[in-house]
UniProtKB/TrEMBL annotation:
Top-level taxon of origin: Bacteria
Any Pfam family: Rrf2
Protein name: Rrf2 family transcriptional regulator
Organismal lineage: Bacteria, Pseudomonadati, Pseudomonadota, Alphaproteobacteria, Hyphomicrobiales
One Gene Ontology MF term: DNA-binding transcription factor activity
Cellular component annotations (GO), alphabetically ordered: cytosol
Length: 152
């Protein structure tokens, strides 16, 4: 099963936007996420609807941040993406007739629900400002070593 990496990708893009002034085109952001600009426009339109980003048309236009990074959490961005499935695992059969499988499903469902609740709770505690501060700290360490943000 292919992993859904949209949350990671969108966070990547938002942090780039936070670090550099001026608008970013969908093409530039598409390169950063290694995806088609059409995909970027679709994702960013959803973020725009929630006032996390804004867009300017025309020459010199593009996407800019429209939010206070300290007020937006990972959970907010996750929700803006449509709350994609967190866990790739699931039950073999959702409505089994077998009592053994019903017992297995009940145990797994509880574990899955607990894991998802814990992760979403953590997402709600981490702001984009916290990620941005961590990035700045890492950039400072890299600059001391003479490396850029994208190279190890």
């Amino acid at each position: 099963m292919r992993r859904d990496s949209r949350l990671s990708g969108v966070l990547h893009v938002l942090l780039h936007m936070a670090q550099q002034p001026g608008p970013f085109t969908s093409e530039t952001l598409g390169k950063a996420m290694d995806t088609n600009p059409v995909v970027i426009r679709r994702i960013m339109a959803g973020l725009r609807d929630l006032n996390y980003v804004r867009s300017e048309k025309g020459h010199g236009g593009g996407w800019t941040l429209a939010c206070d990074l300290s007020r937006v959490t990972l959970r907010d961005v996750y929700t803006a993406l449509g709350s994609p499935s967190i866990l790739a695992m699931g039950n073999r059969t959702e409505a089994p007739g077998c009592l053994v499988e019903q017992a297995v499903n009940a145990a797994l469902d509880q574990a899955f629900d607990d894991a998802e609740a814990l992760l979403l709770s953590h997402f709600g505690e981490v702001t984009l400002a916290m990620l941005s501060n961590d990035l700045r700290r890492r950039l400072g360490a890299r600059k001391l070593q003479g490396m850029s943000a994208h190279h190890a």
